[in-house]
Amino acid sequence: MEHQFIMGRSMTELGANPDSTMQDLMNLLGGADISQVLGLGVSMPLTFAYDAMPDPPVSPAARLASAAARRAPADGVDRISRLPDQILRDVVSRLPAKDAARTGALASRWRGLWRTAPLVLVDEHVLPKRVAAKRVTPGGDDASSKAAVAAASSVLAAHPGPFRCVHITRGHMASHQAEIERWLKLLAAKGVQELAFINRPWPCDVPLPATLFSCGASLTRLHLGAWSLPDTRSLPRAAGFPHLRDLMLSMIVIQDRDLNSLLDRSPVLENLTIISTQTELRLRLVSRNLRCVQLGMCPLDEVVVVDAPRLERLLLWMIVSDDKCPARIKIGHAPNLRVLGYWQPGDLQLGIASTIIKASTRVSPSTIIPTVRILALEVQFEVHDDVKMMPCFLNCFPNVETIHVHSLDADKPTGQLNLNFWQEAGQIECVQRHVKRFVIHEFRGTKSEITFLQFIAERAQALEKMVVMVASQCYTTAQDVKAKLKPLTCAEWANKGIRLTIFKSPSSDGASPTWNFRMASDFSPSDPFDFLTADAELMRGASTLRLKAL
């Protein structure tokens, strides 16, 4: 496993001796300096890592009482302080750490209560007023970092625990390495339940000590960012996370064996999210409880789903693959897999059981995944190999009911395929009998896109709704878009009663699908690809047409 060029080196070192890759990036950005290039490279995954964090269970912005409730009672009796200790502790536990500590000034009855209540520590909430609370992107150990580290140290030392939730995300931990192990020991001793610990780069691979595993007895949710994770080979067999249900790893450095060991040591894990690993990812999934796996902005070599009986969602976003050797996704035992995507036919290789799926693969019971209901693809419609792979790929999922296709602008077009290609592709089971909803994202109006839409229109007997989200740079007027879709009027629609909704994409460039890691791991909406198009008819400027209106 090769390290990427940014690992183990400070910004100063990279600036003094930029390698060829770094120099090319600096030139591409018009002579940008090293800090600008590195800032761009790290800010994006950091932003996604921060956005993916669940909101802490307390907020300093919350209103504590109505105006009427804030008025003193007419008889002057403090009835709240007469409540039982357990209720008062529950009140205190719902406050940010700074406000919880201040309750001791209310009355003698409240003194010391905050030390016996489960606490929520968010470094932003305990920063001094003079320090900007805004979360920062890459930088050194500035005033914000120093204040965040000092405040976290103070609260962790002062409160005996337990800690319901701890978010430490603003510290430049390369400058405070002594605190890392001390904090982890305190958190383990004080029963932390939810922990978000994100190092502020540079560097991006500060070692995280194996003391992390001492927190395992109490942790239910863990988010680690911009760390080099510990070697697990010397850990005791019993070390692990027996109650961990949610694991998120962002910008991490980890060896394959240690990642797989971490998963093996998390027997009840349900949600796994990995954002922008700094090393090529090889993942082996053997889990009785895992329900959702998200991989985003990762350099990917291979994912093997060996045995995951509860896995429902396998979600891929902005995957980085070697042009000469496409990344491989092998799906073995996953009898509940219902949602898959975004799949890139040209950059990802699909394996089902022992068969590698190719354009020439014949459909058989051993080459299908009948449980998938929602499928999303990224396709370069002006690249022959991408489009030629689609019929066989779709045949692997015979019961799909919703298809999302994100149309990518081809860097190196190799030509467009006409309607004959699709007509000669033969019957595609899911299109013919099961697809009820079809969405094309970033439609540009190319001939290859139009012929694919015609194919769907003519074959999809169960189709109820088609949504066309037009790329913003290709959207001039509604009438112009309708003119581009005019060839659809020549199609012999399999279902005459469908609705066709057309609207302008809210994305400025459409280079990659819009994504939200937090929403995608939420099972309440059934379709994680649909948060832009679920209510397409309500979008500003949307046109909803019946077939005859074309």
Automatic annotation (TrEMBL):
It comes from the Eukaryota. Residues 77-113 form the F-box domain. InterPro entries: F-box-like_dom_sf, F-box_AtFBL13-like, F-box_dom, F-box_dom-containing, FBD, LRR_dom_sf, LRR_FXL15/At3g58940/PEG3-like. It holds the Pfam family LRR_At5g56370. This is F-box domain-containing protein. It comes from Eragrostis curvula (weeping love grass).
